[in-house]
Amino acid sequence: MYRKLLKKKRDTIQPLKTNAIDSSGLVDLTKLVKGYIGESSDIVQHDMVIAGLIKATLFHVSGLSDRDMIDNSVIKPIMQMSQREVANISHEELIKKLSQEVINLSSVQSIKSLDQSVHLLMTGDSLLIVDGVDKVIILGTKGYEKRGIEEPKSEVVIRGPRDGFIEDIQTNIVLLRRRIADPNFIIQTGEIGQRAKIKYSIGYIKGLVTEELVNEVRYRISCIKTDEVLETGTLEQLIEDNVLSPFPQLMHTERPDKTTAALMNGKVIILIDGTPYSLITPTTFEQLLKSPEDYYDRWHIGTLIRLIRYLAAFFALFLPSLYIAMVTYHHGMIPTTLALSIAGTREGVPFPAFLEAFLMEITIELLREAGIRLPRAIGQTIGIVGGLVIGDAAVRAGFVSPVMVIVVAITAVASFAIPSYSFSIALRMLRFSFMIAASMFGLYGIVISYITINVHLVGLRSFGSYYTSPFAPFRYKDWLDLVFRAPLSQQRTRTNEPGTLDDIKQN
């Protein structure tokens, strides 16, 4: 579907238009820059005279640039230049002298594109315009406030590194570089968003990842024509294969160790400046039920935890619909004692099983959403206490049965056991469709819905990889790290999805 939507756009990608500087006068260039930036009050303009002979103007954005760096490494050395140093010197020699001898910065360049110059100004660099010079000197003076490295907020770490990504893309790259000291670890940076021009990076390990996958990621990003992409969730929606599928086709994480493991398995990662998440592509169904802790503990523990997760996914998707089907249509499948107990608890309940379950599930979802939006200190308390109070009150009032409250509670707890939040949301959405099918056709409706979802999953792709691999197509070697986690000494090869240039990861 994705290729059909973008087939006509492949040949229409245009390079960024640039406005070359055609005036060398200080006044003219200053007016041109001001024409670009408008009347922004946070743009600081500093006029100076070099050695009492040559006029110059420095622009920087307050708050994005390091003021101490500008004062001590740019303005002060320039103002200390003598007339002997600038007398009878050509423009090219002056730029060379300023860049290599006077200005004490590691990043100094001169360009003629005014569009590019102003864009770099708006990202934190400073512009130095010298009278008579038809180039703008770009000074690397970025120095804005940023959050310190902390433990991931959305992914609780039981065992493993406690550092997490932050909103600064350069810091995130450093966190990955600390873990991968391989010169083949490639980071390529670009800009996305026609107006916002947000910095992004793609990362991969050369010699592991296939060139086709890297080119596909580059192509899909290059096809994006929108004003801004401020978060990885926005980018994910713009480059995924099937926009109608409820299942996540890219995996996001705050954890550098999880991102590193993906790189080592021949995947491509995407980072965006301003967000503490990385995107991992391609993604398969079974990876959404894995966690880095599976490999930090011994294989017995890892296997047990994975079995619990698969069981939790089953409960989160099927448990309410199975209750509806059994109570409404298939009484004979319930043991007699249990059937009598359920019938006794439902005595006096005015609603059918489907409506009873539907109302309780909606209530739980409301409480969960309210708990997220409330301040963190009281959000979890409201969700737990609110569920207990409302459930008890509903039972006492005779609106729902105690068994229904137990079913809904187990379902809610099971959805929290799934590591991927996006995958958990998908199961929560599909749960309602299973409930509707169970209320109409009983177990037959559940089976038909299950077959329909499996047909969809088998046909789903993530950047060319089979979403249901190694279940379908069946990859027997990958089953060593699927539901059961074999000892690490036996996991000698990488997974078949995605295909890699080097399948051996352990000799």
UniProtKB/TrEMBL annotation:
Coiled coil: none annotated. Keywords: Membrane, Transmembrane, Transmembrane helix. One of its GO terms (biological process) is spore germination. Its main location: membrane. It is a multi-pass membrane protein. It is found in: Cell membrane; Membrane. It comes from the Bacteria. InterPro entries: Spore_Ger, UPF0353/GerABKA_families. One of its GO terms (cellular component) is plasma membrane. The chain crosses the membrane at residues 307-329, 397-418, 430-453. Belongs to the GerABKA family. This is Spore germination protein. It comes from Alkalihalophilus pseudofirmus (strain ATCC BAA-2126 / JCM 17055 / OF4). The lineage of its organism: Bacteria, Bacillati, Bacillota, Bacilli, Bacillales.
